[in-house]
Design goal:
This protein is an alpha+beta fold. 49% of the residues lie in helices and 16% in strands. The strands form three sheets. A five-stranded mixed β-barrel has the order 4-7-6-12-11, surrounded by four helices. A four-stranded antiparallel beta sheet has the order 2-3-1-14. The protein has a four-stranded antiparallel beta sheet with strand order 5-13-10-9. Strand 6 and strand 7 form a beta hairpin. It is elongated. The relative contact order is 0.13.
Length: 597
């Protein structure tokens, strides 16, 4: 049984090149994949690349309690809202019992994400009772606006605009107001209980009482609430940011309100009826490109059962009116993000909003519809911006710390292990290459981003990786001290060193896994990097360090124990080789002589 075992061992020792070739192929393949993907550098986190950190404080609103369930739901919706814009490495997490921290790094769509995270209130569909372009009081009306006596579209111009949602807009308020509508197709499914009547035609008068009245004709018997709404609408100037920040923010879902909205880069002011559909009743929304017709980018919506009925009811009512009273405002945090018009009752639970959308506009609107409804309202407490220069300084400091740590490890290896330090440095280089390539690939694959704690994890991994080499080298030296030559020492030392390396790396990986599970935010970056480098340590030791050591044991420089090889038997205090001696055979046993006895 012993001979076959020795034969297998010799065969394994004679082909260490297979393991080296395997890890070389893996490195080439991963590096090729990195260049092919176009992501040649790891994605950087907010603390290294720069970005914005927003602190939001929850407020109880209309019976919604601030509890863990509602906070977790809000975090999930915000996370999906930001990720729906394709923002890389955005972090949304709770802090304490009523705060949410949102970290948005610099990059594609980061500005849009910051704006949408800030709009954290609920989403509603409200019927439009009146609307017009918001012109400052000091502005001079354009000729087209003065000819009609109002900046809101006339019934005739609205009728022509209803035919095509992609009708061109001009600088005049009349034409611009015409372009605000988005054609709503008969594929929408909704459940909307009409809370208010939007009957009547749009008035061409510029007086607030005519344009803002919820009824078709102004009445001298309008109650105090209607008069107050008319006064608010008349005084509303949506061209001012301070006015937009408060308009419609405190309105209850069941009350009519005024609001502002930006359509085609022009700010409009609206009178909106009570909410007909709640944003929570939108099951799904997506931006799609119409390949069959000329509609271009569209937003497709799906409502749940109750939302489908409510939306069918409100669209049936709105379709009987003239513009703008055949429109419904999609209101997020008190701001009108879109105001599509209705041509007929929409049933079936599915709908499309089409018009002159760009891809970005369609995606933003779909994202708001999908993830706009939060269980709580939030107030922005603080906004902290990390500049790219500060992030670069922190990255430079982290890399400098890593370089210093690596240099100290190399100096120790050279002084103490001499020639063996070449094996250790080559193994560290292979581990560094694999770590870098995997970090670059994991960025687009799973959203991994290299932040400062992750850099710290990579620095700590240098010591873990070097420790594995030291364990193996010391086992080899122990065998040489016992009087064995290098080649058998390398093979006999491996099983014992392998067991120690596996146990040590298992403990490190277990600690990293527990840390990743129980922590949030940037600390997870440290845990993930530590776990990744621990796994790579096992791969490098098994497929590179051990085979390389087997090859070097055949070289005279190491095999003969050169004093600079780090394996000199004399400097290691090696014992003389143990030799077995045979005892001389004694005389054959015979009868005992009585005299000798």
């Amino acid at each position: 049984m012993a001979a076959p075992k020795r034969g297998r061992s010799a065969s394994a020792q004679s082909k260490p090149g297979r393991s080296l070739a395997l890890i070389l192929i893996a490195i080439v393949a991963l590096t090729g994949g990195m260049f092919a993907s176009g992501h040649t550098t790891p994605r950087l986190g907010i603390d290294l690349a720069g970005g914005t950190s927003i602190t939001l404080k929850a407020k109880a609103d209309q019976g919604s309690a601030i509890n863990k369930a509602n906070m977790d739901t809000a975090v999930d919706i915000m996370n999906r809202r930001v990720n729906g814009l394709g923002v890389s490495e955005a972090e949304v997490q709770t802090q304490g019992s009523d705060n949410i921290i949102v970290n948005i790094p610099r990059g594609t769509n980061s500005k849009e994400a910051q704006q949408q995270v800030g709009t954290t209130a609920k989403l509603y569909f409200r019927p439009v009772l009146a609307s017009e372009a918001s012109v400052p009081a000091s502005a001079t009306p354009s000729p087209s606006a003065s000819s009609s006596g109002s900046s809101s579209p006339s019934p005739s111009s609205s009728a022509s605009a209803n035919e095509k949602a992609s009708s061109s807009s001009s600088a005049s308020p009349t034409a611009t107001a015409t372009s605000q509508g988005r054609a709503v197709s008969d594929a929408l499914k909704a459940d909307a209980t009409p809370s208010s009547s939007a009957s009547g035609s749009a008035s061409s008068s510029a007086s607030p009482s005519a344009s803002a009245s919820p009824s078709a004709s102004a009445s001298s018997s309008a109650d105090a609430s209607t008069a107050k709404l008319q006064a608010e609408y008349a005084a509303l100037d949506c061209s001012k940011p301070k006015v937009r920040a408060t308009a419609g923010k405190s309105a209850k879902p069941g009350d009519p309100t005024v609001a502002c909205g930006e359509i085609d880069k022009v700010w409009y002011k609206y009178v909106l009826g009570p909410a007909a559909v709640d944003g929570t009743e939108v099951k799904k929304a997506a931006a799609v490109f119409d390949t069959q017709g000329a509609s271009g980018w569209q937003v497709q919506m799906n409502f749940n059962g109750s939302g489908a009925k409510k939306f069918a009811d409100i669209t049936a009512q709105l379709s009987k009116n003239q513009r703008p009273q055949n429109e419904f405002g999609i209101v997020l945090d008190g701001e009108v993000v879109s105001s599509p018009f209705v041509q007929q009752s929409i049933t079936g639970g599915q709908a499309e909003i089409s018009g002159s959308f760009s891809q970005q506009e369609a995606q933003n609107l779909a994202n708001m519809l999908s993830y706009g409804a939060l269980p709580l309202s939030f107030q922005e407490q603080s906004v902290t911006t990390v500049t790219a220069a500060l992030g670069g300084d922190q990255l430079h400091a982290g890399l400098l710390a890593g370089a210093i740590g690596l240099a100290l490890v190399v100096i120790y290896l050279v002084v103490y292990y001499r020639g063996l330090s070449l094996v250790a440095m080559a193994s560290l280089l292979v581990s560094a290459v694999l770590t870098y390539v995997l970090m670059a690939l994991l960025g687009p694959a799973i959203g991994f981003a290299l932040n400062l704690p992750a850099v710290c994890g990579a620095i700590v991994a240098i010591g873990i990786t070097a420790d594995s080499f030291i364990v193996y080298f010391e086992r080899i030296r122990d065998e040489i001290r016992e009087g064995r030559s290098l080649r058998p020492a390398v093979e006999r030392a491996w099983p014992r060193a392998r067991r120690t390396v596996l146990v040590s790396d298992f403990v490190s990986f277990l600690a990293a896994a527990v840390l990743f599970i129980v922590t949030v935010g940037k600390v997870q970056g440290f845990a993930f990097t530590l776990g990744l480098t621990t796994v790579l340590d096992v791969v490098v030791v098994f497929f590179f360090t051990k085979p390389l050591m087997t090859l070097l044991a055949r070289r005279k420089f190491f095999a003969n124990g050169h004093k600079w090889s780090g394996l000199d038997p004399k400097s290691l205090g090696a014992k003389a080789p143990l030799r077995r001696t045979r005892r001389p055979a004694g005389p054959a046993a015979g009868p005992v002589d009585p005299k000798e006895a």
